[in-house]
Amino acid sequence: MTVAGVRGAGVEQGLPHNPGTKGDATMHEWLQDLASALGDPVSWQAYRRVLARFALAEGLQYAAIALAFWGTLHVLLRRRLAHRLISGWPRRGDVRREIVYSASSLLLYSAGAAAILGLLADGRVEIYEDPRRHGIAWLLLSLPVLLLWQDLCFYASHRLMHTRWMFRHVHGVHHRSREPSPWAAYAMHPVEAMVNGGLPLLALAVMPVQEHVLGLFVLHQVARNIHGHAAIESLPRGFTRHWFWGRFTTTTHHHLHHETAQGNYGLWFTWWDRLFGTERVDYLQRFDAATGPRPAQARPTAEPAA
User: Fold this and answer.
1) What's the half-sphere exposure (Cβ side, CA atoms, 13 Å) at 265?
2) pLDDT score, position 195
């Protein structure tokens, strides 16, 4: 389901709608209304249909982008890009496990999207159509604000996931892939998936977002997450040492995190790791090694003349 169709989906599927403005009802009353709706078989069936539509849309988007990266880097250009392999090729058993866990995460993310729909119908979040509704300045700033919000929250939650108990019981699922594939992007414990899926909900609770901006945010999140687990460094040599581009994370940046489960906790940007001293000391060298020139192929020597 596209973001543009969120507003009409609740009416189409028969979800309850509160025409009141934001803040008209207390959270206690809202939860009572929700419990009442879920207890009604007709409303429950409507919610399940909405969830199924979100799951299909989310799954197709994730599968299409992951397949694009996998098919391009790991199949079509496998030999040509072998010198850009950061450490080793993903193992088949890891890939199968990553796909199963990704499916589990997609279901939870779809439930989160359905929750956003319910909050939208209740007037508690604002996803608007008219780009001019909150001004062009906010339209242009809202996407960077969302990205910065998610990046900061992810860094903090990622550090929490690396505490002893959380890593052993939750985050360790994601780190079973020492050499991840594009399918590892969503391969995580359900608890971690709920934490990550809740970060955009927190942002939507305090800021209005234009529907196409939200769509771009979701697309960016999926594509760059998959790119970070690609196992092959596709960015150009010198990227990490550039004054501007060096502030963005690379596949190598996150791949090194998977190798040792230490350092490089950032998501989209490198500045939090640099600010808090958690960037791997070998990051720049490993990136340079992965983006070195392609080895020249030995040519057969000509037969000596008789």
Assistant:
1) 23
2) 93
CB 182 within 8 A of CB 174: no
pLDDT > 80? residue 276: yes
Q: What is the 3-state secondary structure (H, E, C) of the chain?
A: CCHHHHHHHHHHHCCCCCCCCCCCCCHHHHHHHHHHHHHCHHHHHHHHHHHHHHHHHHHHHHHHHHHHHHHHHHHHCCCCCHHHECCCCCCHHHHHHHHHHHHHHHHHHHHHHHHHHHHHHCCCCCEECCCCCCCHHHHHHHHHHHHHHHHHHHHHHHHHHCCHHHHHHCHHHHHHCCCCCHHHCCCCCHHHHHHHHHHHHHHHCCCCEEHHHHHHHHHHHHHHHHHHCCCECCCCCCHHHCCCHHHECCHHHHHHHHHHCCCCCCCCECHHHHHCCCCCCCHHHHHHHHCCCCCCCCCCCCCCCC
Q: What are phi and psi of 299, to 5 degrees?
A: -100, 140
Tens digits of residue pLDDT in 30-81: 556 655 655 666 656 666 676 777 778 888 999 999 999 999 999 999 999 9
Structure tokens at 9: 């989906």
CA of residue 296 relative to chain centroid, distance: 37
Cα-based angle 221, 218, 91 (whole degrees, multiple of 5): 45
Contact by Cβ (8 Å): 181, 74: yes
- In angstroms, the CA 134 to CA 237 distance is 41
